[in-house]
């Protein structure tokens, strides 16, 4: 019996403790409630469950394997590091897990266009892929800075047939892409659906995206127990909005013996303004239709944020993460850009696995922690994506 009480999460109003909800005008609240009703209806039908299961198996390539990073573990001289290989999924990351679910939901609801934001481009590629699969037009909003950093994913989105909208306002990164996509969605919310790319936004999206992503943790728990007869000692994942982390964490929340660590981007340092460590340094506030920890100024306006990983530079965070922080079930730590780059290169050259810069944050934390522990201890890292999209950027930055 766990000492933590998690049910129900969220409640009927979409709150995880004090966080989440729907901070929306009445007409938009009605639209979100319609999405919630449709989701609750479709998720229990055998036809939907069967279609999603078959697509996960035959299209995505699930289950993704768990890999023992033996050479990395030996190099560090401590705990054994294992990787949940979400980078091997079709489209190269965990994002396909919820994008398939959202595209099928849009089809079920008869929507005429799917709109979304993307930072690193992985959500954009996955959603464009899912929309091509089910035959629904797709429009992706992406900050101009991220378009230039993540060119391979931009090309893929165009090839897949989506309409790409460059966003040049503000910092021209993820937060601004969210603003732009939401404005387009508000033009016709009855016929469009905004497929949010993480466990953020107004209810029901934090619940829905978590549910679709929870396949990661269910698989990982079964796989690790089948191999070792027990759970890992520590599980960890990077946290921006927090979808890959909630995907892994959910299956282990009631296992009190498992230490759970979310890793945020410290950017150029927590003592600078150039970071995205929302749970570490943020305060409770409101952003994009829900309540969460926010990096904000004295007027409650979101601050500019920074991470070397385009998918992590968001001034808010998923409401369930905020709740898990407050009840101290999950520990949230941070990793700098430099530590991330070191982990990116180390994993590439020691294990032959090029990670996404987002995922490299979790790898960096595991590399920092492993030498402090005995060789009998295990750390399971959610390797949420592969680094094809980042290779040219890193090569240029490091002068390779």
UniProtKB/TrEMBL annotation:
Pfam families (alphabetical): PALP
Quaternary structure (record): Tetramer of two alpha and two beta chains.
Broad enzyme group: lyase
Cited InterPro entries: Trp_synth_b_CS, Trp_synth_beta, Trp_synth_beta/beta-like, TrpB-like_PALP, TrpB-like_PALP_sf
Domain spans labelled Tryptophan synthase beta chain-like PALP: 61-385
Record keywords: Amino-acid biosynthesis, Aromatic amino acid biosynthesis, Lyase, Pyridoxal phosphate, Tryptophan biosynthesis
In-chain residues carrying the UniProt-annotated modification N6-(pyridoxal phosphate)lysine: 95
Phylogenetic placement of the source organism: Bacteria, Pseudomonadati, Pseudomonadota, Gammaproteobacteria, Oceanospirillales
EC number: 4.2.1.20
Regions crossing the membrane: none
UniProt source species: Amphritea opalescens
Role played: The beta subunit is responsible for the synthesis of L-tryptophan from indole and L-serine.
Molecular function (Gene Ontology), one example: tryptophan synthase activity
Name this polypeptide is given: Tryptophan synthase beta chain
SUPFAM superfamilies assigned: Tryptophan synthase beta subunit-like PLP-dependent enzymes
GO cellular component: cytoplasm
Underlying gene: trpB
Pathway: Amino-acid biosynthesis; L-tryptophan biosynthesis; L-tryptophan from chorismate: step 5/5
Cofactors: pyridoxal 5'-phosphate
Coiled-coil portions: none
């Amino acid at each position: 019996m766990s000492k933590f009480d998690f049910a129900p999460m969220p409640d009927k109003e979409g709150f995880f403790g004090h966080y989440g909800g729907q901070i929306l005008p009445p007409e938009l609240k009605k639209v979100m409630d319609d999405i919630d009703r449709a989701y609750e209806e479709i998720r229990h039908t055998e036809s939907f469950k069967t279609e999603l299961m078959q697509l996960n198996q035959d299209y995505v390539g699930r289950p993704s394997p768990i890999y023992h990073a033996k050479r990395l573990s030996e190099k560090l001289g401590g705990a054994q590091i294992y990787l949940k290989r979400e980078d091997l999924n079709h489209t190269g990351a965990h994002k396909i897990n919820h994008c398939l679910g959202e595209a099928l939901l849009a089809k079920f609801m008869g929507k005429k266009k799917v709109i979304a934001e993307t930072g690193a481009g992985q959500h954009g590629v996955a959603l464009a892929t899912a929309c091509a699969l089910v035959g629904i037009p797709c429009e992706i909003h992406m900050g101009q800075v991220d378009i230039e950093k993540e060119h391979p994913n931009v090309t893929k989105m165009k090839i897949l047939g989506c309409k790409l909208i460059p966003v040049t306002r503000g910092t021209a990164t993820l937060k601004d892409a969210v603003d732009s996509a939401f404005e387009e969605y508000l033009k016709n919310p009855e016929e469009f659906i905004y497929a949010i790319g993480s466990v953020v936004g107004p209810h029901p999206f934090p619940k829905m995206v978590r549910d679709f992503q929870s396949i990661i943790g269910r698989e990982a728990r079964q796989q690790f127990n089948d191999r070792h007869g027990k759970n890992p000692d520590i599980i960890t994942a990077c946290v921006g909005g927090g979808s890959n982390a909630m995907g892994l964490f959910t299956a282990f929340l009631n296992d009190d013996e498992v230490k759970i660590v979310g890793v945020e981007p410290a950017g150029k340092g927590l003592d600078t303004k150039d970071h995205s460590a929302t749970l570490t340094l943020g305060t409770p506030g409101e952003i994009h239709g829900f309540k969460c920890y926010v990096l904000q100024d004295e007027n409650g306006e979101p601050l500019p944020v920074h991470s070397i990983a385009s998918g992590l530079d968001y001034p808010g965070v998923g409401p369930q993460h905020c709740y898990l922080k407050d009840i101290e079930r999950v520990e949230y730590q941070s990793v700098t850009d430099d530590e991330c780059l070191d982990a990116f290169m180390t994993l590439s050259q020691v294990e032959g696995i090029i990670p996404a810069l987002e995922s490299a944050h979790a790898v960096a934390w595991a590399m920092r922690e492993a030498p402090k522990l005995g060789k009998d201890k295990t750390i399971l890292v959610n390797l949420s994506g592969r680094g094809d999209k980042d290779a040219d950027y890193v090569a240029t930055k490091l002068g390779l």
